[in-house]
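Good morning,

Attaching, inline, the backbone tokens for the sequence recovery test we're adding to the shared suite. The designed sequence is right after.
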């Protein structure tokens, strides 16, 4: 109710404009049906992310469905996100002013959003999701982020030598001994420098590194150091997968972040099975 009232107030027909300033084609909603988000200085990264999140139906519906009171600082960011999504969906204006949304970041703990500072969009996404997780508590949509974007990866260490653990022997012509630890994720970071497509980036993500020589893995179960492969595998894919293309790196000569402008292609249909734990183990069994 408060959201509908706010949109109606913004479109109050009593607003007067001088005839010289009256240019309806510049003030109204775009002919393509979209409403933009106004750049508050250097917030283009934020606007691009919010537009993408708005176009995820499950997430947008969950935000609208959160039971948030019209007042109080604890859930101010969720309330402002509802207002932003509501205006993007229903407004007849060309764009929505995000000033109140930017100010609401300070109300959910931490520093206010500096609108004059350019930020890596993945860095901002982590900040936004952290604040939304806290703001969604007690709204009936506590698991919204997890249900939409939450996946799981396995940190896996595969022993490449024959080891004995208890009464069982691993390796050789038998199954390798593996140590696994599962953790959640919202995004998968991918290297794009010198990569022709995200398929190459995903291959690198799951390739892992060899632990040998002076860097051997101390296998606690076997009680000795062994050659091993340390890698990440996706154990559970989220409903909506967010791939973070790592477009910034730190230049130690200039002592600042620089943009990576390498072209990186992506397919319209992405098969993620080869990068999952199940898919990788299937390929290894077939190659054995």
């Amino acid at each position: 109710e408060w959201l509908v009232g706010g949109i109606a107030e913004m479109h109050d027909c009593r607003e007067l404009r001088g005839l010289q300033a009256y240019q309806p084609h510049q003030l109204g909603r775009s002919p393509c049906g979209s409403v933009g988000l106004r750049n508050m200085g250097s917030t283009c990264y934020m606007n691009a992310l919010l537009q993408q999140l708005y176009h995820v139906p499950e997430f947008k519906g969950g935000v609208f469905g959160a039971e948030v009171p019209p007042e109080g600082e604890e859930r101010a960011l969720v309330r402002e996100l509802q207002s932003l999504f509501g205006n993007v969906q229903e407004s007849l204006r060309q764009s929505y002013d995000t000033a109140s949304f930017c100010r609401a970041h300070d109300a959910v703990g931490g520093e206010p959003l500096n609108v004059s500072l350019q930020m890596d969009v993945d860095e901002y996404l982590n900040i936004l999701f952290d604040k939304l997780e806290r703001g969604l508590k007690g709204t009936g949509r506590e698991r919204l982020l997890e249900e939409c974007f939450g996946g799981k990866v396995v940190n896996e260490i595969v022993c490449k030598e024959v080891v004995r653990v208890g009464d069982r022997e691993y390796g050789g012509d038998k199954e390798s001994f593996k140590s696994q630890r599962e953790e959640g994720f919202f995004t998968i970071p991918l290297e794009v420098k010198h990569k022709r497509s995200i398929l190459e980036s995903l291959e690198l993500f799951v390739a892992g590194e060899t632990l040998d020589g002076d860097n051997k893995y101390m296998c606690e179960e076997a009680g000795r150091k062994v050659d091993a492969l340390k890698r990440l595998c996706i154990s559970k894919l989220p409903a909506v997968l967010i791939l973070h293309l790592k477009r910034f790196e730190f230049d130690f000569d200039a002592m600042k972040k620089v943009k990576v402008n390498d072209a990186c292609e992506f397919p319209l249909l992405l098969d993620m099975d080869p990068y999952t734990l199940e898919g990788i183990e299937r390929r290894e069994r077939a190659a054995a």
